[in-house]
Design a protein that fits this description.
alpha/beta, 3 domains, six-stranded mixed beta sheet, five-stranded mixed beta sheet, Alpha-Beta Plaits, Udp-n-acetylmuramoylalanyl-d-glutamate--2,6- Diaminopimelate Ligase, Chain: A, domain 1, 339 residues
Amino acid sequence: MKIKDVINYLEQLAPPQYQESYDNAGLIVGDKDTKVSGVLCCLDSTEAIVAEAVEKGCNLIVAHHPIVFKGLKSLTGKNYVERTIIEAIKNDIAIYAIHTNLDNVYQNGVNQRIADSLGLNNTRILAPKKNLKRLNARIKSDEASRLQEILEKEGLDHLNLEWSMLGDWTSIALSFNYSSAEHGRILHALQEATGREVPYTSWDIRESDPNIGSGMIGELPKAISGLEFLKMVKEKMQAACIKYTDIPERKIKTVALCGGSGGFLLPYAIGARADAFVTSDYKYHEYFDADGKLLIADIGHFESEQYTIDLLQEIISRKFSNFAAYCTQVKTNPVNYLV
């Protein structure tokens, strides 16, 4: 089993085209054709994580957060990012990040795990994606393998192509979903693979795919007071503390949530008539935006995403049995609390 096999499986569940434009999910360090000896799952790639991977005999780290967000101009070890990359390369360890694409899927996603931890029912995506499209085209049967090669060269090998042989066996109909930002590259790949302009149809699927998007909303089994709700969230999410807005007089039943920095979803939470919004990384003046319409509970970035480690380990272990997948024992949360 090779690293690319693990990557291909993860990207079937959380396609890279679902990541946000600022993100850098994907293979960051390593050779995807290397045989997997073991996988270490974590939130953050750090030097300590690399050392743990070496100790456990793992040559693949699957992290939620990308260790590299911007281009590196040098690798001199002047900061933890460069030192982590250097140590990974020295020890032949690959680092793969599955970030906002995992945030943006409903099934097996970050927010679904939070919702399950809080015991929410009737869950749904809070802000469905609006930039997804679907394409249908027809190519010759003998052009299929060439198209696959071109897509890989163009960095589009993550596309989950759906093939169907047509009646005369000389042509293939293909369909797939993709991000609007990839439209031009896809048309170029089709032309390069076939040597002609391929007729196609494409359309926006934002209304037909409610399982892709940001945040989640659901209902508690029964309504509880705001204080009861905060105590429950603190316990279930193992939060050292919670920062929150004024507790409303009404009981809490409908709960919106977002792992990580989810403040941008507050208008969606209010629009969906949520009684509470659980997320992290709120700034002082942003708390005023609750405006008495709901309870904001800021539980901390690490705390909101900590169960992603178990999620990744479970996903990988269910699929692959010929190597071990571990949850890191290193706590990478850079924030400490005096309580």
